[in-house]
Amino acid sequence: MALPPEKISELRQIIHNKLTQMDVHSRIRDAVSETMEESRVSERGGGAVGEEQVLESLRQRGIIDEILSEMSFEEEPPRDVRRPTKPATHFVDREDRIKTSTPAKKAAIDPTRRHLYLQVKGGKAFLEHLQEPEPLPGQVGPTFTLHVLFRGQRFRSKPVPCACDPDIQEGFLLELHSKGSGEAAQMADSTSLLSLCDPVHMVLIKTDVAGDTALLTSHYLEWRHVLAAQDGYTNTAVELMGVGTESKVPVGVLDIRLEILPHPVHTLAPDVITTQLNLEQSRRAERERLFLVYAKQWWREFLQIRGTNSSRLVKIFAQDENATNRPVCSFVRPLQAGRLLDTPRQAARFISLLTYEKASTVGGGPRAEQWCTMHAFLCRNKGDCEDHSVLLCSLLLGFGLDAYVCVGTKTNNTAHTWVLTLGMDGEATFWESLTGHRYSHQPINPDDPPAVEQPRPQYPYRSVGCVFNHQVFYANSQPTDAVEVCHFNFTDESGWKAMSEEAIKSVCGEGTLPLGPVFPPLCASLFDPGLLSADLELELRVLVTEHRKDLGLTTVWDNELSYLLTPALAAYEQERTTGQISGNEEFQQAIRRAVPDGHTFKGFPIQFLHRNARRAFAGCLRSPVCEEIVSCRGDHVRLAVRVRVFTYPEQACAVWIMFACKYRSIL
Fold first, then answer.
1. Where is the CEP76 N-terminal domain (predicted)?
2. Could you read off the pLDDT of 606-618 as tens digits, one per residue?
3. Coil, helix or strand at residue 151
4. pLDDT digits over 13-40, tens only?
């Protein structure tokens, strides 16, 4: 890539200053003088010194290597200056239109800090993809993407074609830092590294031709066996198991190399590592056993309160994607979004844009219930209502709200989860994680006479069995579990039976050994909303033109009218986020000025969660209003289309499309 002249001058000045600081010029003069002197006294020298001879002399003295070394790494800051924390999260965008073709930059590794280098050297035995069909010419086939989470650091591999032996060749450099400091441990020895009990969470995602994602495996890799390797590294074959009902079925094998950088001076005996792992496992098992004993006793007490309590949805444990039973409180943790989300309502809007999909089962029967860990949910970018509610509750807790996950049923008597927040005055607000809608809860008093007007609930919930977050768990023991008459005063022991906070903390607290990986941070979107909007709009214009051509109609686009639709799309997104709409008056004024007298204007807005133009156009044509606009016939017909993509964290997008037309009315 060519640089502008001013950048070239600036770069030359930087190089000159660096060479001057290293006193390179005087060292080169001394080396040249010595070389010329040696040439004179040499019998075959004749006094002539060539360029190659001078370069060889500089290379032998180590001057060239020193220059290259200094130019390749950043200048070391003073020891008394505190290092700024470098973000560990790194993503490679998989969208061909958006991703950059330049190679990734090499990271400047601090040799005074420990790192775990995880290298994936390929996959094998993915037998389900043994007969993977070849994609059509110009079509991208299904791909595998490997996601890695370790102590708050997230990485993902480049997508590779699905195959029986997928060519996954990736390296992940993971910082071994002290907990809570955000910085790498200063040359932690092997004994200190052995105390880091966090596993490496690996999630493998399959993306099909249409862009739909599927969770193939969720694996926890124990990395500390490398501390016993004499050479500082170890190679291992990791067998990946399926998820949900297929958690006992192998999916494939990954060849992995683990290495500690820099290599520890002393290695640990394998028996020491095995003893430590067994000790941690026994402690975890004992805590889980004690909590299970307490939960059984607590449940028996709850059933004795009222005979109908046995039919209420009181969920103490849930199965994750690996079919492992975990306390529901362990799925929630206060999560701060940094500068990616500004308000709780914006967080609700973001979560509503993640695709809703029930866990699938092979064969008939009731739906499978699967509560995904937050990392697996974010990697897949889709999940069930439980996944959405847990993430929303975690974000609302991060914003400082008193938030809980509610487990109950909807008006159609199907199981459902949503989020509850309580104000300082005890006012309850429901948050629907699948839509982002908020509902104020005003309980009905069933003892009031019929003449007293009662509030009419707007929320779609019928019953509530329990509520919980990362610290508390309450079961509904009121005379009825109907939401419309429930009071959410958790200090009232006659209405809510609480679990011991100490018991919950023993299995879900900060100081406990992790039952799973640490909760992942959110990652900023890598998409350019302007570029996405322009590309999608151009594709839609082509599709509309072809559609009208098939109908025997010509197409004339009105670019000015298309631009005037932008404020309406912005207002629609603002309404979904804040519940308020603005700018409608100005939009109507602009449209009236753009549509001449005697002409008719029609518009059709719609929102999608994907960025596939062909799918979006097919969805629009299902609406009679949109089909009428696209197939408009008449005099002086002018068409317009505007696309506005609003990006959110984790590659979530709200895609707003508006089709419009204006034509002369003929009576």
1. 10-71
2. 999 988 899 999 9
3. coil
4. 667 666 766 777 777 777 777 777 776 6
Q: Fill in the amino acid letter for 60.
A: Q
Contacts of 614 (CB under 8 A, 6+ apart): 539, 543
Query: pLDDT digits over 221-249, tens only?
Result: 999 999 999 888 899 999 999 998 888 99
Nearest to 357 by CA among 141, 520, 212: 212
Please give the C-alpha separations between residue 33 and each of 37, 47, 49, 487, in angstroms, as whole numbers.
Answer: 6, 12, 10, 92
* Rounded-to-integer distance, Cα 75 and Cα 130, Å: 50
Q: Is the dihedral of CA 150, 155, 160, 162 positive or negative?
A: positive
H/E stretch holding 625 reads helix 624-630
Q: How many CB atoms lie within 10 A of CB 406?
A: 26
Q: Is 381 exposed, middle or buried (0-12, 13-18, 19+ CB in 10 A)?
A: middle
Name residues whose C-beta falls within 8 Å of residue 81's C-beta, 6 or more positions apart in sequence.
none
Q: What's the Cα-to-Cα distance from 350 to each of 395, 406, 461, 462, rounded to whole Å?
A: 11, 20, 22, 26
CA 380 to chain centre: 8
Cβ atoms of 382 and 354 closer than 8 Å: yes
Residue 14: exposure state from Cβ atoms within 10 A (0-12, 13-18, ≥19):
exposed
- pLDDT band (50, 70, 90) for residue 187: low
CB atoms within 10 A of CB 238: 16
Dump pLDDT digits (tens) for 563-602: 999 999 999 999 999 888 887 889 999 999 998 888 899 9
Q: What is the pTM of this model?
A: 0.80
Structure tokens at 475: 């079961």
CA 294, CA 499: separation in Å to the nearest integer? 9
Beta-carbon contacts of residue 566 (< 8 Å; ≥ 6 apart): 642, 644
Task: Give CA angle at 112 (110, 113), nearest 5°.
Answer: 75
- Torsions phi, psi for 224 (to 5 deg): -75, -5
Q: 69, 575, 10: which is closest to 345 by C-alpha?
A: 575
Q: How far apart are CA 370 and CA 248, in angstroms?
A: 15
* Residues 6 or more apart in contact with residue 41 via CB below 8 angstroms: none
3-state secondary structure of 227: helix
How is residue 405 written in tokens? 């996950």
DSSP type of residue 177: B
| ω into 366 cis (within 30 of 0) | no
Instruction: Concatenate the DSSP letters of all residues of 582-619 into one string.
Output: --HHHHHHHHHHHS-TTEEEEEEEEEESS--HHHHHHH
Q: Half-sphere exposure (CA, 13 Å, Cβ side) for 392?
A: 34
